[in-house]
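Q: Could you fold this chain for me?
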Amino acid sequence: MGLPVTLRIALRALAKNKMRASLTVLGVVIGIAAVTTMVSVGQSASRLVQDQFESFGTNVIVIFPGSQRGNGVNRGRSSPTLTAKDSDAIERECQAVLAASPMVFAGGQLIHGNLNWSPKEMVGVGPTYLSVRNWPIRRGSFFTSSDVNNAAKVCVIGQTVVDKLFQTRDPLGKSIRINNIPFRIIGILQKKGANLVGEDQDDLVLAPFTTIRKRMRGSLFNNVDIIMASARSANLSREAEYQITSLLFERHQILPGDDPDFEVQDTREIAQTLGVITGTLTTMLSAIAGISLLVGGVGIMNIMLVSVTERTREIGIRMAVGARGRDILLQFLVEAVLLSVLGGIVGLTLGTLASIGITTAINEWTSGTKWPVVISIPAAIVAILFASAVGVFFGFYPARRASRLDPIEALRYE
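A: Sure. Below is the predicted structure, expressed as structure tokens.
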């Protein structure tokens, strides 16, 4: 007996007990739906982390000043050990580094006309800062090395500052006062939106670091708060980190065995760590959800055993007219696989809809950060294959039992 005939007989048998078949596949539906939802939401979280680090910059490496220690106690990063010349040397001498920029932080109130606003960030940076952050200018231009050398009172602002102070007016060429110091706006940054923790990245003002240090902080020293650099590629991040460390050891005259007066952190490593964490959580949640698949498989086996008992006389009649044991085995095995695959398709559909609903709800309930909707095609294929495997595994014993019935005894069964 061929497979098409067996498939038709199996469909006819399942159609006779629609309610029982529906209840049988319920466990598989729940299992596949749960696994699909967990995998999709987990991959959405991983994609969010990846996108956020890509928006932060390209292969960014951050150099912090060293921690001060006294009496064996770490007093935090308060030692001004980094200078703008360190940043220039990193960009000039480290072959694996694409660009580097010093950073000096400040705070203050912006005033334009009768409007005022206190931005989340006010940062003094170098002319290559946007290359480090991979952040394009939407309109206007960025300040130059000449502006940095002359401590020019120019600035570039984010979209949030534009909305708060200018609304629908064009801010280019306009003047704003920062702590009563006039600054001319020469550029507007491309909008980036919220970061991983929901903070607005567009609520900032960028100015030459010399201007911030001299005019707003009143400092005549050459130190900077941090240095931000970017590697030429992801593969060169570790090499860039090594070159920066070696260079600063030499420039700061740190002897072997002494504690360095700086710290180097590669944001790519942080992203990889967060990716491992989200991946592990996704795997754990998927494994827990997969337990329901086992429950669904046991349900299929129980129903198929009941079906074998109920159809004993039918099996005897089929054997009496020439059906072989393997034909009976194939028939019940096909029925079990059909139940599992049907449950897998329904579960996959419900899981996809659930993952879309969850990410949409998260985006509605949280401000700023937007979770991407991720539907994993490989996960969908694995889900269907796994559902088929469940049908084969849990359907084999009832099918084998049916194929081994004695035809004479089966015909006598009432």
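A (continued): The chain has two domains: 3-54+272-412, 80-260.
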